[in-house]
Amino acid sequence: MALMKSKESVQGITSRAPRPTRGAAVLVACALSIPVFVVLSLIEWALM
Fold it and tell me: Which stretches does DSSP call E strand in 1-48?
């Protein structure tokens, strides 16, 4: 990702770049799926 630097040095110690975790993937999936479910449910309800 563009926001993540490849290496960061803190007090002379260099670590790897942070990686997205499985937990982050679950949060993104929920953040996208719940509003889509609500919108589709409202559309279905309005057309009935």
Answer: 7-10, 13-16
